[in-house]
Amino acid sequence: MHYIFSINPLIEALDEDFIKFFSQDKDGFLFAVNKNHVEFDYIDSHDYFVCVSGDIEKNQRTIYSKDIVSYLTGCENYKSFFRDLNGQFIVIIYDKKRGQVTLVRDKRGFKTCYYKNENNSLYISEDPVCVKRLSKSKFDKNNLAFFICSHYSRFWGRKQSFFQGIFQIEPANIICFSDSTVVSEKYWSFEFENSEIISNFSDASNLLEKNLHKSMQNILDKVDDESTILALSGGMDSTVVAALANNLKRPLNSFTAQYQENLEINEVKLAEEVAKKHTRSWRPINVNAEDFLQHLDSVYDWLKIPAASSSIVGYDLIFSKVKDLGFNNIILGGSSDNLFNGNHPDFLYYLSDLYEGSDKKFSHELNCWIKLHHTNQFKKDPSVFNSFYSCNLNHQNKNLRVIPRIISGEFLRSEALNYLQDYLEIYEFQSTGSYLSTYAAYSHWYSAVQPMITGMDATALNLNIKYHDPYLSQFLHNLTWNFSPELKIRDGINKYILRKTFDDILPESIIRRHTKVGFDVPFSSWMKTEMYKEFLIQNLKNTSSNISFYFDIEKIIDSIVKSDFSTLDPMFMWQLINANLWERAYAN
């Protein structure tokens, strides 16, 4: 859905892709929506125009634009109102009396929105290309170059976009635009959820089971059986979702994506085992390297930002196949990592907390971490922890030190490095208490969740489908935030309380597994095949000067021709190829 707002009465006419719902009034206000996505909630009252994109809830009651207007009348402070709201939303409020526009993004950043405020004109849209086109903004080459050669998490979730002067509103933020004044502030923080820590396992387990059932029931109340399907990976999270629905007497249709055969972990067989017990139907969705490559060719017909991860394109391909089968509600179960410290870096932050506290616990958990998670590819030993502890943490205030790093730096031209120096400065993410809790907040707002959300939101619009995930419940998030760390990581096992709470419905093979595949695309393997090498070379030969100014494209092509993949980081190659595709589609 696309909204374009302007306080400049001289705004150019919108092209045929847009319907203008309201003429500009004397203040120069305009509202327009993309023809393909006309589902929105708005109200145009005497004093306010309010538009809501997404879904808002308060105490399990849906909040509409008319409810927001009722509250705004006579209200001076929006913060307290929005702090109590949950959901996935962007809200735009136009105060006609004050001539003020207020932009609000949901607490956890599930919906995205961009804006440009310049020369007495304000442009707001969920589509950055719309803002670029209407405001005639220029391409930001430095931002794109940094995206290509850094871990995508260093870029996503922050204000910067790929166009000059166009910014993304950050999660849990309110921005008020009035004349020449712009005021931005957070209306909610993870710190607000700090209440009494829950340490008793039995209490925590009962609360978790009760509220996860409740979250699942809320989803089932909104969907019908025939148009709804579960993405069942064969991992723990989606297995719990399948079992919950079955326990609630609403077994789901299900599917499992299969990218390649003979994986070390064959999750398709695990998923089929779960499906027979807990779902009403199951089918595999097969995706091969050729399917993926053909789909990538059309991604930038609808995706308006470079795909941060190959999984975004993979999800769109898989879900398009599911959509063709007649399903338009897809239930996911992949968002529990942030609730239960399920990401591998969580171990290092947890060990850091223990290192500064209990020597006995630290030694035990360090040994368990090494024993359970060491591989030849991903080394785990005391030196790995010591290096992490020394470099990545501020030990005085427990802030995280975020260190931007260049990947595949041998392909970056030396003269171009001067343009990226500002991006390479170390900055700190403010502590929320412990190292582990601070990383949970950081990974949600920046490194882990935001890159995927941005792409998934665009996928939902592209396919006209809806995603549902019981782990995204705000109340469930608040609850697990107050679980003690020992309930989430114990004996070198992450998601400990989730495993133990539902061990009666989880197969033993899933409970004892510490690795996972999920629906991740095996791009790092595919890029070494002859078909992909040919694609990569052809793509790179058409690289524009905007990108080749920073990177030695001939050197990269030479490495591909020689099959020298030791220097070609898969993340770097994915981001470079997609920057090329995106730049050709939109930058000019």
Description:
The chain is α+β, with helices and mostly antiparallel strands. It has a domain at 18-188: 4-Layer Sandwich (Glutamine Phosphoribosylpyrophosphate, subunit 1, domain 1), CATH 3.60.20.10. It contains 24 helices and 21 strands. It is globular and about 60 Å long.
SSE layout and pairing:
Elements: E1 18-22, E2 31-34, E3 41-44, E4 48-58, E5 61-62, H1 65-72, H2 79-83, E6 86-95, E7 100-105, E8 114-118, E9 121-125, H3 128-135, H4 141-149, E10 167-168, E11 173-178, E12 181-186, H5 201-220, E13 228-231, H6 236-247, E14 253-258, H7 267-278, E15 281-286, H8 289-296, H9 310-324, E16 329-331, H10 337-340, H11 345-355, H12 359-373, H13 382-391, E17 400-402, E18 427-429, H14 435-447, H15 449-463, E19 466-468, H16 474-481, H17 485-488, E20 489-490, E21 493-494, H18 496-501, H19 508-511, H20 523-526, H21 530-541, H22 545-548, H23 553-561, H24 570-587
Parallel strand pairs: 13-14, 13-16, 14-15, 16-19
Antiparallel strand pairs: 1-2, 3-4, 4-5, 4-6, 6-7, 7-11, 8-9, 8-10, 11-12, 17-18, 20-21
Major sheet characteristics: 7 strands, antiparallel
Q: Helical amount among residues, as a percent range?
A: 25-40%
Cα shape: globular
Distance from first to last alpha carbon: 23 Å
Summarize this structure briefly.
It contains 24 helices and 21 strands. The protein is an alpha+beta fold. The chain has a domain at 18-188: Aminohydrolase, N-terminal nucleophile (Ntn) domain (Glutamine Phosphoribosylpyrophosphate, subunit 1, domain 1, 4-Layer Sandwich), CATH 3.60.20.
List keywords for this structure.
588 residues, alpha+beta, Glutamine Phosphoribosylpyrophosphate, subunit 1, domain 1, 17% strand
